[in-house]
Amino acid sequence: TGTLTEDGLDLQCVLPILHSYDTTNDLQQIEFGSEITEVTDLNWREDEAHSMIIVCMAACHTLTRINGELAGDPLDLKMLAFTQYELYEPAASEQSNFDMLFPTIVRPINTPQQTVSPLGRFSGSVSSLIAGHIPFEIGIVRQLPFSSSLQRTSVIVRILAKDSFDLLTKGSPEKIAELSRPETIPKNFNEILSSYAKQGYRVLALAYKPLELSYVKIQRIEREKIEHDLIFIGLVVMENRLKPQTEGVLKILSNANIRTIMCTGDNMLTALSVARDCDMIPDDAKIIVVEASEPNSPPIFSYAQVYNRRVREVRYDLSRFKSLDITLKLMI
C-alpha cells in the first residue's frame, strides 16, 4: 500500500481504553473511550492507561539524531510530536539517574533540569509518578526493531526514579491483541478496528508490560520470552492519503491492459478501502478474502465473500476431498 499512499501519515486520533461498570451483570468492562486528538486531552495524571499511552508513543521507536536533526520513520516522528516530547542524548554525568550507560532519553519539551536524587526510587504507578511532580523522563535501554514477520516493534525503558523496567510494544492491532492478556482487550475491539479499517485508516495498537528483570538480563533475554501477556492500552489511528499521481498512473496501466496487484501487510479492510479509492477495484466488485490455517484435524479451508459490506463465510472439510483444485482470481 505504501506505493499508492503518501509516505507521511497524519495522526488522526488516539483511542485509549476505558474502564466501565456493567451494573446489570455486576462486572467491570473494558471498552474504547472517545477519540483523543490532543495530548492535553489525555487524563495522564490520574489514568494509568492514558499515561502509558504517552510513554509508548514517546519512546517506542528507533528514532535518532543525525547532525542535530531527528531522523527515522515518519510515523514515529508524528507520534513523538503528538506527545510533545523530545529526544536527546544526555551528558555522561546525567546517566546515574537511570543506572545505565548512555541511554537515549525522551522527555517533555522544555522540561527544567531534573533534581530528583537517584537514591529516591519510586515503585508506584506511572500516573502517580507524574502526579507527584517528578520529572517524567524516559530512558530507552534496549530496542527490539520492527519485523514484518513479527508485526511489531518493542523497546525496554526505565522511567526516571522508577525502580523497574517496562516493555513497550506497538504493532498491528491483531498481533498486539494476540499477545495481550485477554482481560485487557476492549469488548468492542473488532467492531472499532473494522470501522476505521473500512474508512481506509491505518491503525496501530499499543501495549506494555512491567519487567522485574535486572539490567544484565534485560540486555540478553530473547524478545519472544518477554513479548507476551501484555497489557493492552489503546489504538493510534493514522490517515492514509493517496499520492496525487496514484489514480492517474493506475488508469494508464488499466488502459494498457496491464493488471495491477497490491501486496500489503496492512489490515485487509484498509487495503480494500485504498484499492477502491484509487479505482484499482471497482465499487461493485465482488471480493473474496482467503485465510489459511493449519488446525490439528480435520483440515479446514474457509473463505469469506465480501459484497456490499456483507460477509458470508464458506467452510469445507478437506478430509472429504481426495484432491482439491481451486482457482482464485486475486483482486488485491
Keywords:
332 residues, alpha+beta, Calcium-transporting ATPase, cytoplasmic domain N, 2 domains, 9-stranded antiparallel β-sheet, 30% strand, globular
What fraction strand? 25-35%
Order of helices and strands: EEHEEHEEHEEEHHEHEHHEEE
> How many strands in all?
14
Mean pLDDT: 77
| Overall geometry | globular
Distance between the termini: 10 Å
Tally of alpha and pi helices: 8
Poorly predicted regions are: 112-123, 129-135, 321-332
Question: Would you write up a description of this structure?
Answer:
This protein has 332 residues and is an alpha+beta fold. It folds into two domains: 10-239, Calcium-transporting ATPase, cytoplasmic domain N; 246-320, no CATH class. The chain contains eight helices and 14 strands. The strands form three sheets. Strands 2-1-11-10-9-8-7-6-5 form a nine-stranded antiparallel sheet, sandwiched between helices. Strands 12-13-14 form a three-stranded antiparallel sheet, with no helix packed on it. Helix 5 (189-198) packs parallel to helix 8 (268-277). The longest helix has 12 residues, at 48-59. The model is unreliable at 112-123, 129-135 and 321-332 (pLDDT under 50).
Could you give a quick summary of the protein structure above?
This protein has 332 residues and is α+β, with helices and mostly antiparallel strands. Helices cover 21% and strands 30% of the residues. The chain has helices at 48-59, 74-83, 126-131, 173-179, 189-198, 215-220, 246-255, 268-277; strands spanning 10-22, 27-32, 64-66, 69-71, 85-88, 104-108, 138-147, 152-159, 165-171, 202-211, 231-239, 287-291, 300-307, 310-317.
